[in-house]
Amino acid sequence: MLKGQHQYYVYILSNKMYGVLYIGMTNNLERRMIVHKNKLVEGFSKQYNLTKLMCFEQFQYVNDAIKREKQLKNWKRDWKIELIEEHNKDWHDLAIDWDF
Q1: Are 10 and 57 in contact (CB under 8 A)?
Q2: Cβ–Cβ contacts within 10 Å for residue 16, how many?
Q3: Under a CB-based contact definition with an 8 Å cutoff, are residues 45 and 89 in contact?
Q4: pLDDT tens-place values along the chain, 100 residues long
């Protein structure tokens, strides 16, 4: 990544295959996954034990990421499941091997 460039991520978490889904946006996916996996913030993801990264998309511009996050949050559940399975058909935690 070039100096001055930013990366933004829209991501979907779950607690298990076909479980509860959570959509979020961040500029640091690793840091955000530390927060979710260690339940460092009170809220929906902590309440439902949403610690598994099911899929994510990367954006250069924050406005594009915000737009996509809003779009996904308005999608039907079936569409979200199709998106996950398009990229991660077995619902593996994509962050399981990350060094935290």
Answers
A1: yes
A2: 10
A3: no
A4: 556 678 999 999 999 999 999 999 999 999 999 999 999 989 999 999 999 999 999 999 999 999 999 999 999 999 999 999 999 999 999 999 987 6
Structural domains of the chain, with CATH = 8-87 (3.40.1440.10)
- Whether the CB-CB separation of 7 and 64 falls below 8 Å is answered with no
* Cβ count near 49 (within 10 Å): 15
Which two three-digit tokens encode residue 19? 């479980």
16 bridge partner residues: none
Q: How many C-beta atoms lie closer than 10 Å to residue 53's C-beta?
A: 23
Please say whether the dihedral angle defined by the alpha carbons of residues 19, 25, 27 and 31, taken in this order, is positive or negative.
negative
The residues facing 59 across adjacent strands are 8
CB 48 within 8 A of CB 77: no
Sign of CA dihedral 71, 72, 77, 78: positive
